[in-house]
Specification:
This protein has 453 residues and is mainly α. It folds into 2 domains: 331 residues, no CATH class; 109 residues, no CATH class. A 5-stranded mixed sheet has the order 2-1-3-5-4, with helices on both faces. Helix 6 crosses helix 18 and helix 21 packs across helix 22. The longest helix is centred in the N-terminal third of the chain and has 26 residues. The protein is globular, with a radius of gyration of 25 Å.
């Protein structure tokens, strides 16, 4: 319900227009994208069918991600019920619902919500396998893990931990039937992955050579991301103080809880979550393949929420008013108006009002601009020639335009972070040598529009 209330509040922005644009293509055109695209195909294919049914409006495209978030709530409830009780399941759902990160990134028309759902489902299936390791559940687990790989390549850090735990669970059963179920499940997983392996190797080689756009993390990012996942530093401080107080006044219960923890499935979930988290940090620190960034890793907040929900449910039963305080602090900290620091809808609206032609830098901002400029033009999957016909010029320099006489004035120069990407403002300097600046307006994220006469 919260997602429905705010699903259209933020503009379609950043990487969302890219996903929506390519999802409009037919499946043959879409398949050729993944030869050079850093994202696997699953979310694009699902979004392809979704937009063919419901269109490319913000509500239509983001409702798919919202649907995945609703399914995640159901999975989290099942996790809580298996691990402890219905109450833990409800607490876990509350943490997920009032998470700022899951509220903002979770409804974007990108793969994050789907990946979070599949990660939560993998944890759920591991818990089910812990209870009863059989062939049906083993194959289901393999399909979920394959889904992770087909959704985001960050899964290359996730899958070793999931299958290691799967192996340990199966080995601990000491049964040939269980061992056969594990091997068959692993074979199913391998067969499903065969079609995507060549593309993955190509993208891996590219990343090893060129690196990623993500900067190497500072050691402070280790706790910085956790603070983001838990809605901010004051929430972390408040929850910590409540936990410390209760632990200090419940020493006997703490000792019992620690023994339960060391023998519980929670121990496994904490190891999976912390293992992936630390691995992502170390790889980002010591290689070109930096991935330690909030939007790539926020699915791990599921593990931290499980730990908090388990703590509330197990430790605070005798001090109910204190036991619910961490959750109350978290809910109060919820900010549905949190921005992703972009408002391209307002930028395009100002540009249309102020100019007759539009020069875009960097050129790849064209998808975002056209989405807000003319939805019908966006749905035509416009070529560069078609954009030029509509007085929209996504270019690197004025030499790409045959003659400046074709450009209708006033001109809106849309600077969507060109200096950040290129380290210079060549195109702006070229325009300044031919035209006179009339007006400049700055938008969120440091984007600007300069009107030239």
């Amino acid at each position: 319900m919260l997602g429905l209330l705010f699903i259209e509040r933020l503009s379609i922005d950043l990487d969302e227009p890219f996903s929506i644009f390519h999802a409009q293509k037919n499946l043959h055109e879409l398949s050729s994208l993944f030869v050079t695209e850093n994202n696997p195909p699953l979310h694009f294919i699902l979004l392809h069918y979704w937009v063919s049914w419901f269109g490319v409006s913000p509500f239509a495209t983001r409702s798919l991600s919202l649907f995945f978030s609703v399914l995640t709530l159901i999975v989290l409830y099942r996790i809580g019920k298996i691990m402890s009780s219905d109450k833990m399941g409800l607490i876990l759902m509350m943490f997920f619902t009032f998470s700022n990160f899951h509220h903002s990134y979770g409804i974007e028309a990108r793969a994050y919500s789907l990946f979070t759902l599949l990660f939560a489902a993998s944890i759920w299936l591991l818990l089910e396998l812990y209870k009863n390791f059989n062939l049906k559940r083993s194959i289901a687990f393999s399909f979920i893990c394959a889904g992770l790989f087909y959704t985001h390549y960050i899964s290359i850090l996730v899958l070793p931990f999931l299958f290691l735990v799967n192996f340990v669970i199966g080995y601990s059963k000491k049964s040939r039937k269980v061992w056969a179920a594990f091997v068959i499940g692993l074979l199913v997983f391998s067969i499903i992955l065969l079609p995507i392996i060549p593309s993955f190797i190509a993208r891996l080689n590219h990343v090893n050579d060129a690196g990623t756009w993500v900067e190497k993390p500072h050691w402070t990012a280790l706790y910085g991301l956790l603070i983001k996942f838990l809605n901010g530093p004051f929430v972390v401080l408040g929850i910590s103080l409540v936990v410390i107080y209760v632990l200090y006044h419940s020493k006997d219960k703490v000792n019992t809880a620690l023994k339960e923890f060391s023998n519980s499935t929670l121990y496994t979930i904490v190891l999976i979550t912390s293992g992936i988290y630390i691995s992502a940090f170390l790889i980002s620190l010591f290689s070109k393949s930096a991935v330690f960034i909030d939007r790539y890793l926020f699915f791990l907040s599921i593990g931290f929420f499980i730990l908090l929900a388990y703590t509330i449910d197990m430790l605070f039963q005798k001090k109910k008013y204190l036991g619910w305080m961490p959750l109350a602090i978290f809910v109060i900290s919820f900010n549905p108006f949190k921005t992703h620091n972009r408002n391209s809808d307002e930028l395009v609206k100002f540009s249309k009002k102020s100019a007759n032609s539009f020069i875009l830098s960097p050129p790849h901002y064209d998808l975002t601009f056209v989405y807000h400029y003319d939805r019908n033009l966006f749905e035509k999957i416009p070529t560069k020639a078609l954009l030029f016909e509509n007085q929209i010029y996504p270019i690197y320099g004025l030499h790409e335009i045959k003659t400046l006489q074709h450009i209708a004035t006033p001109i809106a120069y849309v600077d969507a972070g060109s200096k950040f990407l290129y380290g210079e403002t060549k195109l702006f300097d070229e325009l300044s040598s031919f035209y006179v600046q009339k007006e400049t307006k700055i938008f969120e994220g440091g984007y600007r529009v300069v009107i030239f006469e």
